[in-house]
Amino acid sequence: MNIHRSEAEAKFAFMDNLFLNVWPAKPDSINGSERIERVPALSTALKQCAGLRKRFLRYFTDGVLIGNCLLSEPAPGVRLCAYVLPDSVLALVLNQGAEAELSFRVDLEPWVAGRRAFAMTLVDADGRRLAEGDVAPACTLRTPRLPHLGLAAFELRGR
Q1: Tens-digit pLDDT profile for residues 81-115
Q2: Cβ distance 122 to 134 under 8 Å?
Q3: Is 89 exposed, middle or buried (0-12, 13-18, 19+ CB in 10 A)?
């Protein structure tokens, strides 16, 4: 995925486990003429995505990408991209709307069968742990207030 300056495109490509070719341009100049650090929103997004990828690397390398198939009903404003391992799930969540808490219904049973509960860990875009607890296979997941294009990640490990 060629990324010029778009924070959104960088986060979408990261969530979909795509290779990112990032080359911002100075105004009225050629691609690759600007340093990434001089495009603050893009630079921050790339650092966040790199940190999350490193933390959850096994999902990206060994997991099965199922996109938004965890959702059990529509979730307007929520972009969800999930990866499944034999006993756990990573759900990456992006707020596509205005700043808000996001709430959405998921069903893990078709993807990690035979588990009665899941240990849930929620982290923010910078990898800080925000919440932990147990959830049922069919449940509602909630994020804290996320800004527009804010990211969060739920790791759900079968018990």
Answers
A1: 999 999 999 999 999 999 999 999 999 999 998 99
A2: no
A3: buried
Contact 11, 3 (CB under 8 A): no
| Residues of the chain where predicted confidence (pLDDT) is lower than 50 | none
Distances (CA, A) of 75 to 39, 79, 91, 141: 31, 8, 14, 11
Write down the architecture of domain 57-158 according to CATH: Sandwich (2.60)
Task: Give the span between the Cα atoms of 34 and 3, in whole angstroms.
Answer: 12
The residue ranges of every structural domain in the chain are: 2-55, 57-158
- Angle (deg, nearest 10), helices 40-55 and 7-15: 10
Specify the pTM.
Answer: 0.95
**pLDDT score, position 113:** 86
The CA distance from 147 to 126, in Å, is: 14
Strands (E), 51-128: 64-67, 78-85, 88-95, 100-107, 118-124
User: Phi-psi region for residue 77, left (φ > 0), alpha (ψ -120 to 50) or beta?
Assistant: left
